[in-house]
Every structure is written in C-alpha cells, then in structure tokens.
Design brief:
alpha+beta; Herpes Virus-1; 4 domains; seven-stranded antiparallel sheet; six-stranded mixed sheet; cytoskeleton
C-alpha cells in the first residue's frame, strides 16, 4: 500500500496550487481544475479584448497564475496566434503544467474529459487528512445529522432516517447504488464530450483518449487507429504495473539519487554565495573606479574655479582703481598737484604708461577668465551603453544568427533569426537596430523585446540602411550580440496592387490565382497553334497583364518574384493612354526581319522598333536580366546580361519622369531610364511560354504566422 498522505504533490492543481476540484484532462495529459481552466480562458480572452493582459491577472482571487503563464497569455494575445487564420477557429489554452500553448480544438473546454479517477484519489486523500471530520446529511433540518451513506445516483449524502424517507421500499429509488459517506460523486458510465448521448467504448491510440463509435465513424478520429476499451484497459494497466514494479525495485537507487541531490543542494548554496561575492567585488571595483574619476573631475573643476576667480578678482580691483579718488586715478590726481617740474617728470612718465594701458582696456573690455565650464562636461554616452549591456554572459546560451534569406525589407522590415544548436535555450530575445548615418558620431540603438524568432519593425525611413543585431536572454543570463546585419529600405513608399482580371486579360493563355497576386503563362496548345506559320514568318505574341491601380504622381516602389523556369518575361510601366495599343500590338517580339532570308537586316529598323513600343519594359528570362540597348550602352552583349535576382523591384518617380529596376533583395538599382508620365501610369507585365510572376506581399504583424499556417 502507498500512504495517501505521501502523494499530496500529485494532487495539487498547477494553476490554483490547491487540491484538484473536478479536474479536466488536457490534450497534453496534464490535469487542471475545471474552474481554473475557465478562469484562465477568461483571462486569455480578456487579454484579446483589452489589448493586453495587465488587467486579466486580477480576474479571480482564487487562481494564482504564474508570471510566466501571464507572459505567455500576453504574448499570444499580441501575436494573435490562430486569429483570422485560414484554419477553423480553435481555442488556445496556456497550460500551467508544461508551460506550452495547447490547442483545445473547436469545442474548447467542452471537448475535455473529466478525470474521475483523480477525483476519487483526491477524495480519499481528503478523508485521510480530515479523519474525524464527518460528512453531514444534505436533507436533515438544522442541525444536520452525520451521514451514514451516500447515493451515487442522487449525488447526495443521507443519514439513516433521511435515506429511508427518500428511498422507500418498493420504489425505483430503492434500487439506487449507495456507498459510504463521500463527497465524490462520479457517473456510472463515461459519456463522450463530443456526442453527449453516446458512451465511450473505444480508445484512440493517436490522441490517447477514450472515444465513442460516432467519433470513429465520422468524427475527428475517423482515420485514427483505435482499440477496444477493454484491450486498452488491460494493456495500459499491465504497462503501468510493470513500470511501478520497476520503480519499486529501484528504491535503493532512488535513495542514492536523493542523497546525491541533497549534496548538490548544499553545493549550489555554496556556489551561489561565492558567485554573489565575486559579483559584489566586481561592482565594488567599478564603484571605486567611478569614485576616483568623480573625485579627480571635481578637483579639476574646483582648481579651475579658483584660478578663474582669482583672475576676475584682480581685474575687478584694477577697474576699481580707475574710479575718481581711488587707486590709480587718485594717485595720478595727487601727482598732478606736484609743482616742481623735475620731480613731476620723474614720476609722471611711468604713471602715464599705466594710465594709457587702463585707457586701452576700457576701449576693448574683455574678462580675464571664462565663466563657462564647457570643457569640463563628462561624456558618459558610451559608458552608459556598456553598463546597460552589463550582464552575466554564459557560454551555454547560444548566439543567435540573423537569417538574411528569411529577413526582408519592404513596406516594413521582417527580421528573422535562428540558433545554431538544435534547441532554443533562450526565453526571450532583444532585437536592436539603428539607422546608418555618417554624420552621427554617437549611435543610438532602438530596442524591442521578442518572444519568438522573428519581428516586424515599422516606421523605417525610405531609401536608408539599417543595422540589426539580436541577443538571447534566459533569466538574468544573456548571450553575446549576433553579427550585425545591414539591410536597406526601398527607395520609395511601397505601392500595393493586384493583377487586373478585366482590362485586356487573356484567360486562355494566362492563369491568375484567387487573390490575383500571381499570374502564370503556360506553353500549351494556343502557343503551338500560333506557331503554324513558322516556315512563312512567325508572329509570336506576348500575353500582357497590368495592375488594377494606377499612379498619377509621387514616387512609388513595388516588388515581385519571377520563377526561375520562366522563358520570357517583360516588366515595366505603361501610361493609361497607351493601354489599348499595348493589348492590340500582337507582333512585338519576333517579326520577319529576324529571319535570315527576310532581307530586313538593317540596323536602322532597331531605332524605329524601340521608339514604337507603347510602354517601358525590360526583358527577363532563362534566369537572366537583360539591360536594354541604349546609345550609351556597351556594344558587348555579354555586359548587358546579369543574373536574375531572386526578387525584383520597380521604382517609378512620376515627378522626375524616371523609372528604375532594382534587385529588391539588396535594393540595388540595375537599370534606370526616362519615362513619359503625362498620363496615369500602371504596372505592366508580359509573359510568353512557360513563365510565372508573383507579386510581393506586404509585411504585416502576422506575416510569418500566416505563412506558417499556409
């Protein structure tokens, strides 16, 4: 037998820290009181409604949610996990047992089983703990009598007299099941929480929970492996018995481990005191250094003050001597009273020199000393940054690395990072960034705390470079800073649009996705049928498509991605007054002049051909970017062919009449030219053969979450 009082730790709810009351089994196999689950969910929902969890911690005087749990509730509410997702709405529950966010499914708390076995054990513990405390009759008039039995069908306790009254012989109630006095009433049959009228008779081995036959036939467990309840009962009981026997047989080993852990507790206490002393000594050294520096600075200021006061005081005395009947002037007035010429000349010569100096000093007055102490200002900006980063550095906490491939700059910055190790040992990350500016000597880093491994940064300046770095924290221990990564913002505000499926759209050759952010051209039968005249001069067409929104003024930027397998793609802009000409120009790629025997090999036709184009486009294809031919361009064709960037961007400046084509991953301009912006300008695209274009999606606060769901 196991002593009931020795298992109290297993009977405590991890949320309220009290004995379980109507415990529910979570999908993670932890148990939580029914009331605690509801209160945590209420706090969780309130955090969404209030925009945070600052008030939700006060939702109940009974529940004591740990700070880490509240942090996770706040994190989930801020990140919006599973909200507005493409998947069905489900309920997230921050389990206080395993500190993970558990998906309760669409039914939420109603889909959880009540742990009647745990309730029975808790009741036995309560009875053993209170021993002499009796369970009173529920039906006696005051004062109630001590109960002698409890009815499992009525879920009530009775004394002998009340039991006879409420369960008379010869009635249905007389057949009720009764046991000794108890407060734990459990149903005779366990019913399915999803199908309330069905009893559970099978066990799902995938979800590790009892199910009914309707769950297996057409419910959420239709494709899961199930077994009969009796088989599951026998199998699990045998496994549990064997594991318990093994643990009991290892009692000596367990006691040895307990002894070892006791020694480790003492060693931890000693090591912590030693670490405290070392930390104290380190800060004492810093304190002494600061005290010495402070004393030296104050002494220097005091010395400079005394010297300046002495100089100014001397100057005051000199000017006081210039007053009538005082000092130098008074002395000179007395000398003027001398009547003997020889004696007067002997004294007046030197006196006259002094009088002249005093006169000059009056004409150009200048204080003998400066009153400001600007030279004695202590600049502690760098020291503040260093002291701000002062923390415990641990070799065990891995240095995060910013993933430049997953990070991107568009309308906002999405910064993602990874840890080189298999496990993430940090509880929280700190992301810092600042704008690169050569004029600023002191760099001010902007800081933000992140609970995940990515962060969307807003309000960045256009056409600017920013440096990013990240470090991990686990309690008071932090990792060193990651390598700084420099990313550049787009040259202009991001312009948002989708492909137009009305104006000139050829649905026989082009295929749009439902959101109209991707277009694909397939080299199918239409292209083969259009090539029938190959031997007599081929007029192969481009399939054009434009954006659904135009630009009238200002400077704008948009980005997109061209699939690597694309054969021929053209991208650029088209004015509104030339859109019709664009879609009616069906022979703009190959013409008879390109055939060897056509006789049209004159270079003069090129100029006419380029000038006749209705829009400004550049050519892409076969993983290459082709710089258009211009009079100033190199005659070597190889110099005009660049590798195709993974992301391309177009910057249109209507005010200056220029359009630029960019490597959007590095915000580097590949080609720029003039463009006529007299009308409303539209993004234009053309495809031929097998090709596909995907518009860049705007970065939002839920960008990574949305893509993870997809």
């Amino acid at each position: 037998k196991v002593a009931i009082k020795g298992i109290e730790r297993e009977l405590i709810c991890p949320a309220c820290k009290e004995l379980f009351t109507h415990p529910l089994i979570l999908p993670c196999q932890h148990n939580v009181c029914h009331k605690c689950v509801k209160e945590i969910l209420f706090a969780f929902e309130d955090s969404f409604a209030d925009g945070g969890s600052e008030s939700s911690n006060q939702s109940s005087p009974r529940i004591r949610i740990s700070s880490s749990s509240m942090d996770r509730i706040d994190r989930i509410s801020r990140s919006g996990i599973k909200r507005n997702s493409l998947t069905p709405r489900s309920t997230l529950f921050p389990c206080p047992g395993c500190q993970r966010d558990i998906d309760l499914g669409e039914r939420g708390i109603n889909g959880l089983f009540r742990n009647f076995t745990l309730e029975t054990i808790v009741e036995r513990y309560r009875q053993a703990a209170r021993a002499a405390i009796a369970i009173m009759c529920d039906f006696c008039k005051p004062p109630p009598q001590e109960s002698t039995k409890s009815c499992m069908d009525c879920s009530a306790s009775y004394c002998n007299e009340c039991f006879k009254i409420h369960h008379p012989w010869g009635t249905v109630k007389a057949q009720h099941e009764y046991v000794g006095p108890t407060t734990n009433f459990r149903p005779k049959v366990l019913m399915c929480p999803e199908h309330e009228m069905e009893r559970v008779n099978m066990y799902c081995e995938i979800c590790r929970r009892p199910v009914c036959h309707l769950c297996k036939l057409g419910g959420s467990h239709a494709n899961h492996r199930v077994t009969t309840m009796s088989t599951a009962y026998k199998t699990l009981k045998e496994k549990l018995s064997k594991d318990i026997e093994y643990l009991i047989s290892k009692e000596g080993q367990v006691k040895a481990h307990i002894t070892q852990l006791g020694l480790l507790l003492k060693e931890t206490e000693c090591n912590s005191e030693r670490a405290k002393e070392e930390a104290f000594q380190s800060f004492e050294k810093l304190y002494h250094v600061l005290e010495e520096k402070k004393s030296a600075a104050l002494r220097a200021i005091e010395t400079s003050k005394n010297i300046r006061l002495e100089k100014l005081q001397t100057q005051v005395e000199e000017y006081q001597g210039l007053l009538e009947n005082n000092g130098l002037v008074g002395y000179a007035q007395e000398v003027l009273k001398e009547t003997d010429p020889s004696c007067f000349v002997q004294t007046a010569k030197q006196l006259h020199v002094r009088i002249q100096k005093a006169t000059e000093s009056l004409k150009s007055f200048r204080p003998a000393a400066e009153t400001t102490f600007e030279d004695f200002v202590v600049d502690i900006t760098k020291q503040e940054d260093i002291l701000g980063d002062l923390s415990f550095h641990s070799n065990g906490l891995e240095i995060p690395e910013i993933n430049e491939e997953q990070s991107k700059m568009y309308n906002k910055a999405l910064i993602s990072w990874d840890c080189p190790g298999k496990t993430d040992s940090a509880d929280i990350y700190v992301l810092e960034y600042h704008k690169l500016n050569r004029e600023e000597e002191n760099v001010t880093w902007q800081k933000t705390e992140v609970y995940g491994k990515s962060k969307v940064v807003c309000d960045l300046d256009d056409d600017s470079s920013y440096a990013f770095r990240v470090r991990g924290y686990k309690g008071s221990i932090c990792s060193p800073w990651s390598r700084e990564v420099i990313l550049r913002t787009p040259p202009a505000p991001v312009f948002s649009f989708v492909f137009d499926d009305k104006c000139g759209y050829n649905n026989e050759h082009l295929q749009l996705n439902p959101r109209r952010t991707s277009v694909e051209s397939r080299a199918g039968y239409p292209l083969l049928l259009g090539s029938e005249r190959l031997q007599v001069g081929c007029y192969t067409t481009l399939d054009y498509i434009i954006g659904d929104t135009g630009i009238a003024k200002g400077k704008h930027f948009w980005a997109f991605r061209v699939e690597a397998y694309s054969y021929l793609v053209k991208v650029g802009v088209v004015p509104s007054n030339k859109i019709q000409k664009l879609f009616h120009s069906s022979h703009d790629v190959t013409s008879p002049r390109y055939e060897q025997d056509s006789g049209h090999d004159s270079g003069s036709e090129d100029a006419f051909f380029d000038s006749s184009q209705p829009c400004t486009l550049v050519t892409l294809g076969m993983k290459k970017f082709f710089i258009p031919t211009t009079p100033a361009a190199s005659k070597d064709p190889a110099s005009r062919i660049l590798p195709l960037p993974s992301r391309l961007g177009i910057c249109l400046d209507c005010d200056r009449g220029r359009v630029g084509f960019y490597d959007a991953s590095h915000m580097k301009c590949l080609y720029e030219c003039e463009v006529d912006c007299s009308g409303i300008m539209y993004p234009a695209f053309a495809l031929m053969g097998g090709a596909a274009i995907h518009l860049e999606e705007a970065v939002t606060a839920k960008y990574r979450e949305y893509h993870d769901d997809i």
